[in-house]
Amino acid sequence: QVQLVESGGGLVQAGGSLRLSCAASGGGFSTYTMGWFRQAPGKEREFVAQIRRLGGTTYYADSVKGRFTMSRDTAKKTVYLQMNSVKHEDTAVYYCNAESPVGRGYWGQGTQVTVSS
Known about the structure:
Mean pLDDT: 95
Helix content: under 10%
Order of helices and strands: EEEEEEEEEEE
Strand content: over 45%
Largest sheet: 7 strands, mixed
């Protein structure tokens, strides 16, 4: 089992940058596929980015491609989401997700990102 704690959210101006972190505790971090999702008020939770457990291949939603970068530091059991050129529509609660090799999923508590115009 893994526990996830997000941090780094806050208020940022449109066009600015922010880096989110997700620290994992528990065993097997290197075997998990990690992802970021977000949920804006009144909307469903949506996929943002993913980094695969094998090979570290990354995938991004079209809405953030070219602006956001996801990375992982296995030694620190942490994944990051570098958010550049943020837009008002990036405002949401951002959640970290871990998926085990057998498909079991875990979620963090979320961190709020608010983009001001």
